[in-house]
Amino acid sequence: MKIKQTKNIVPLQMNIEIFYIKNFLMKKFFIQFYIVFLLLFFILVNFKTNIIASTNKKVENITITGQIKQSSRELTNLEGLDVVLLKYILNENGEITPTGPQKRVKTKTNGFYRFTNVIADFQAGFQLGTRYEYNLYNSKIFFMKKGQTLIEKNIIVPRISYSVEKLEISKVSIVIESGLGKVFITEILVFSNKSLERINTKNNPLEYKLPEGIQNFRMLKGNTKDIIKHHIAKNILKIDHIFQTGNNQIIFQYSLPAIFGRLLIEREFDHSLELVGIFTPINRLEIRSDMIAFVGTQKFNQTTFLSWKSKASDLNRLNLKISNVPQTYYQYFIVTFVLLFLFFCTVLLFFKKKLLKLNQ
């Protein structure tokens, strides 16, 4: 019985091993077949994508041409200017946001420019921009259309006018900051030019009245590299500048001396006081006036400012009482010296009278 059992077990084991070998080979075959199938699939998809992309590139290449138009004889040196193609899209909140410059070219003779191989985007808006004499000029926003291969879009620089009366002050911000024995005042004037022309004040400079006793006056450039020509005569600031269409900022700074930590500023304006705003850093100076109303706090460049709004007045005069100005020992030294001198004179006079009585 034992011999028969051994003979039956050996063939059974062999059959099991053969079965496992066949099963392993089948699995290996299917795995290899699956890998080859995936490789072929990705190759075909990639080939098809490349064909579509190359086809689209040929279709979507657009050329944009134009010229910086000379709308007045004052425009010169239009060759070699940078012209930038800007792109605008709608974000998730439905707001129009710029995506940055797409291309940049240089102008040729008479201000001509040409953008080639621009990839079309029918869901975005485009705009051309350039700088001329430190000022930025843009074309109108335009859109691309299907089947379009050439777009002509010009940049118009407004002509120059000398009609100064078209300029008006729309806002005045006065920032008062403390210094040692003085206050620093920065004024931001916003001039509104609602005309379609650039206004030159060379022949008739703008006049703006400054407070008396100002020191260390300087004109600030702000965000522009344009130099603002100016001069001061009897506390009158005269501005010689070319004002662009829209809003223009004039920023300047000066200082006023304080006596024993106090200062009275008296101002007179040629416009409504409702356009004037007063600002000072929190926990520094104390500003008091019946002509201003406290608005609240505002934050600029990580600094919290107290803000006031001027009240309307027929006189258009503004008086500000400023205190808590840091002082030097120099002023106190002068006062001490004067008091000691007076005391010495008093003592001298007293002894002089005594001597006169003794002589009598």
SSE order and pairing:
Blueprint: H1 2-60, E1 61-70, E2 82-90, E3 96-106, E4 112-119, E5 125-132, E6 135-138, E7 142-143, E8 150-152, E9 155-157, E10 160-161, E11 167-178, E12 182-193, E13 198-200, E14 206-209, E15 215-220, E16 229-233, E17 236-240, E18 242-243, E19 246-257, E20 263-268, E21 276-281, E22 286-288, E23 292-300, E24 303-310, E25 317-323, H2 329-359
Parallel strand pairs: 1-8, 1-9, 10-13, 11-21
Antiparallel strand pairs: 1-4, 2-3, 2-5, 5-6, 5-7, 11-12, 12-19, 13-18, 14-17, 15-19, 16-17, 20-25, 21-24, 22-25, 23-24
Distinctive features:
single chain; 360 residues; alpha+beta; Immunoglobulin-like; 2 helices; disordered N terminus
Architecture overview:
25% of the residues lie in helices and 44% in strands. By secondary structure, it is an alpha+beta fold. It is elongated and about 155 Å long. The model is unreliable at 1-7 and 53-58 (pLDDT under 50).
The CATH superfamily of the largest domain turns out to be tricorn interacting facor f3 domain
How many helical elements? Answer: 2
Q: Give me the strand/helix succession.
A: HEEEEEEEEEEEEEEEEEEEEEEEEEH
Radius of gyration: 40 Å
Query: The CATH topology of the largest domain, please?
Result: Immunoglobulin-like
Segments where pLDDT lies below 50 for 5+ residues? 1-7, 53-58
Number of strands: 25
CATH architectural grouping of the largest domain: Sandwich
Concise structural overview:
This protein is an alpha+beta fold.
